[in-house]
Design brief:
The chain is of the alpha+beta class. It is 20% helix and 35% strand. A 4-stranded mixed beta sheet has the order 4-1-6-5, with helices on both faces. Strands 3-2-7 form a 3-stranded antiparallel beta sheet.
């Protein structure tokens, strides 16, 4: 993998947050509008997946990482064309590492309004349908328990 720091590293984390009642946290991106997702973010060039998951949790929700579970699962997906210019020329795919975090209740979070316009706690089934990314939908369906 080319370590060209002027481009984003084509490796990221997905952190699915769900409550003891079975509700899943979904956040709507500012851009593109209508894009709903769990916590996500690219790894810095010198970062390990768990470190990125902890950082992204804090940046995107204000939550700590106590109880964070590394699913030891990753998958590759094609980078959406609207974001490809952030990556080195010819980079078409991203490797996404999955983490889970169960919280006690559906509390407010401290989201960054530059990145997300709103958040909702929804049922597992609603989250599966709401997630724009198929990898996000699949992760919720596969890893979030039915309660």
């Amino acid at each position: 993998m080319e370590n060209n720091k002027k481009y984003k590293r084509p490796e990221s984390v997905l952190v699915v947050i769900y409550s003891q009642s079975g509700h899943v946290l979904m956040m709507q991106r500012v851009f593109p509008t209508g894009f709903w997702q769990s916590v996500t973010g690219s790894l810095e060039w010198d970062e390990q997946p768990r470190d990125a998951a902890v950082r992204e949790l804090k940046e995107e929700t204000g939550l700590g990482a106590e109880g964070l579970i590394d699913c030891e699962y990753s998958q590759e997906f094609e980078i959406y064309s609207i974001w490809r210019d952030r990556y080195a020329p010819g980079v078409m795919h991203n490797r996404e590492h999955l983490f889970l975090l169960q919280v006690k209740s559906c509390d407010d979070i401290e989201f960054d309004p530059r990145e997300h316009s709103e958040f909702r706690w929804v049922t597992r089934e609603e989250a599966i349908q709401m997630a724009t990314s198929y990898t996000n939908s699949e992760a919720i369906a596969r890893w979030v328990p039915e309660i």
